[in-house]
């Protein structure tokens, strides 16, 4: 079967491929380091559990997303094969929501673990957080799985109405004929994005407020500069994550809008950031984790010597 790729499509595919494979290698490095530590210590702490599942979900998301982008740019006809579009969209959505919700769990975990509030409920959460984390991760997985099933159902409805995710120009005209189940499913998809974003916003802002208050307290008490630098570094890390997650959320919303408008070029341009986010944020996590940073620097020094 002949492929038909324009120059702009080839450039976008090249950028997406570079970002996707770089992101997969970065997250694969995190998985390897965490699994080696797991084998040595025979256990994982709550932070490492979240990071391990987050890295695995991002590798899978980037893999399925790259396959979908490759087919949509190079071999578009393959997306019209029965089940292919449904399965790709379902797996991509499942791992995307896993990525978003586990990232939100990580932010909530940092907030509860690091922040210092005197509220009795917050103190209870701080004491029980290690027991709560597995349930948060299980809930994230179950919700992502339900969204993946809903996405499969939506793609079937669109296909039965002679629509697909790469050609939705007449969506609003045909949506009147869609049943209420489709509209409720689409609302659930949007709710998943919004709920995870609100959890990140609330956790990050609460943590930043707590760290800022603690920093001001240290300044008034003339405490050591090393402790203050650690808090400033933590604030920068959380703030960078908040900014990146906000941009990612905006890009997800814009991608939905442009898909509805059948703006394929703009959708691919927005996807460039969506592909960069898992790798860049994982790099931030590596350099904010002493164990992962030490392992990365050790590998880089060995490569440099060779």
From TrEMBL:
The keyword Transmembrane applies. The chain crosses the membrane at residues 12-39, 51-74, 94-112, 132-152, 186-212, 238-260, 266-288. This is Taste receptor type 2. It is found in: Membrane. The lineage of its organism: Eukaryota, Metazoa, Chordata, Craniata, Vertebrata. Keywords: G-protein coupled receptor, Membrane, Receptor, Sensory transduction, Taste, Transducer, Transmembrane, Transmembrane helix. It is a multi-pass membrane protein. GO terms for cellular component: membrane. It comes from the Eukaryota. InterPro entries: TAS2R. Its main location: membrane. GO terms for molecular function: bitter taste receptor activity; G protein-coupled receptor activity. It comes from Leucopsar rothschildi. Belongs to the G-protein coupled receptor T2R family.
């Amino acid at each position: 079967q002949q492929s038909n790729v324009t120059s702009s499509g080839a450039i976008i595919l090249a950028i997406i491929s570079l970002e996707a494979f770089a992101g997969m290698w970065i997250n694969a490095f995190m998985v390897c380091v965490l699994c080696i530590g797991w084998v040595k210590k025979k256990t994982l702490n709550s932070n490492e559990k979240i990071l391990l599942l987050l890295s695995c979900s991002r590798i899978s998301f980037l893999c399925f997303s790259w396959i979908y982008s490759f087919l949509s740019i190079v071999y578009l006809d393959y997306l019209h094969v029965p089940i292919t579009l449904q399965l790709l969209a379902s797996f991509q959505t499942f791992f995307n929501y896993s990525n978003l919700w586990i990232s939100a769990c990580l932010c909530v975990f940092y907030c509860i673990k690091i922040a210092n509030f005197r509220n009795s409920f917050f103190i209870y959460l701080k004491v029980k957080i290690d027991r709560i984390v597995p349930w948060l991760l299980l809930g994230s997985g179950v919700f992502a799985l339900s969204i993946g099933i809903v996405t499969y159902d939506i793609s079937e409805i669109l296909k039965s109405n002679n629509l697909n995710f790469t050609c939705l120009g007449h969506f609003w005209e045909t949506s009147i004929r869609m049943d209420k189940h489709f509209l409720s499913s689409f609302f659930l998809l949007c709710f998943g994005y919004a709920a995870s974003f609100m959890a990140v916003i609330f956790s990050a802002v609460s943590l930043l407020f707590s760290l800022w208050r603690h920093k001001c307290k240290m300044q008034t008490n003339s405490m050591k500069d090393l402790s203050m630098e650690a808090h400033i570094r933590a604030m920068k890390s959380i703030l960078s994550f908040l900014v990146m997650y906000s941009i990612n959320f905006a890009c997800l919303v814009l991608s939905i809008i442009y898909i509805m408008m059948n703006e394929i070029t703009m959708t691919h341009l927005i996807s460039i950031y969506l592909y960069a986010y898992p790798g860049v944020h994982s790099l931030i996590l590596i350099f904010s984790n002493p164990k992962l940073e030490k392992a990365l620097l050790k590998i880089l020094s060995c490569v440099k010597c060779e």
